[in-house]
Amino acid sequence: MQLEGRVAVITGGGDGIGAGVARRFAAEGAAVLVADVNEETGRAVADEIGGRFVRTDVADKAQVLEMVDTAVREWGSVDVLVNNAWAAGELGRVEDKTDALLARGLGIGFYGPFWAMRAAFPHMRERGWGRIINMCSLNGVNAHMGTLEYNAAKEALRTLTRTAAREWASTGIVVNALCPGAKSAAFRRRMRDNPELEKASGAMNPMGRMGDPERDIAPAALFLASEGARYVTGNTLHVDGGAHINGVAWAPELP
Q1: Hey, CA dihedral for 178, 84, 204, 207, is it positive or negative?
Q2: Beta strand 236-239 pairing with 52-55
Q3: What spatial distance separates the first Cα and last Cα of the chain, rounded to whole Å?
Q4: Distance between CA 50 and CA 124 in Å, rounded?
Q5: 42 Cβ partners below 8 Å, 6+ apart?
Q6: Phi, psi angle pair for 194, to nearest 5°
Q7: SS3 159
Q8: Which of 2, 30, 125, 171 is the most buried (most CB within 10 A)?
């Protein structure tokens, strides 16, 4: 019960990594607000764990602020914020990316977490305790081909993570990035369109497989959300089966 008495807000909590983290946090005693743009999956996870669901498009500032306000009204504060949501992206070359695609990617992957962090900050500061976990990606670290909007948003989020960690270090709030290598909802969607890449993804991983959201990623997120992470801030934790060690030769066929 490492999170007993804590309030956690998880974006993109209705599927994949977000759902795995939500289940683990609830099992560890947290009151969990599941925020997701998909009402069906988000509400199902919230009902399963005895949490609260709020439909949230994280690219919409008003909805992000309402998400945080809902947790505060329901439970009095926000102790843990997991910025995990992602719902944009198309596999394609840099020269074919559109302004709209880049703007949507940054809206979901950078501005949404920024608004959520800023809204949660005064509540965490007041209690002198806070945990912010930003889900970033090896795609951005290694600049994988075909996913510019995702790479750019995730690296911008890592910069936000480190900057906030430095500025908030004296407040009791720690801010860290987690780069997972797992079968997320976005990964599964991409593999449906490119089934030949799924086998290749597992084969390229040093452990020979992609991670499981609940068994491989959620325990690492639990540590970053716990009291044990009180002296850990501004870090990027790769939970990817070792894929970051030498990089991954990701070279999909692009149109």
Answers
A1: positive
A2: unpaired
A3: 49
A4: 23
A5: 13, 14, 34, 35, 36, 53, 55
A6: -135, 70
A7: helix
A8: 30
Q: How far is CA 1 from CA 6, 100, 246, in A?
A: 10, 44, 36
Q: Closest by alpha carbon to 89, among 149, 170, 48, 161? A: 149
Active site residue 150: yes
pLDDT tens digits, one per residue of 229-251: 999 999 999 998 888 887 767 77
- Which amino acid would we find at residue 50? G
Closest residue by Cα to residue 207 from 232, 242, 237, 174: 242
The rounded distance, in Å, linking the Cα atoms of 30 and 27 is 7
Structure tokens at 54: 């709020």
Active-site option among 25, 150, 187, 250:
150
CA distances from 231 to 4, 129, 130, 139, 249 (A): 20, 12, 12, 27, 34
As given in the structure block, the two tokens for residue 62 are: 């008003």
Q: Is 153 helix (H, G, I), strand (E, B) or coil?
A: helix
Q: Which residues contact 98 (CB under 8 A, 6 or more apart)?
A: none
Contact of 116 with 44, CB cutoff 8 Å = no
Return the structure tokens found at 22: 């939500």
Structure-token pair, residue 124: 């965490």
Measuring CA to CA, which residue among 230, 225, 114 is closest to residue 172?
230
Residues 31-81: tens digit of each pLDDT:
999 999 999 999 999 999 999 999 999 999 999 999 999 999 999 999 999
Beta carbons of 54 and 74 less than 8 angstroms apart? no
Token pair for 173:
């709030």
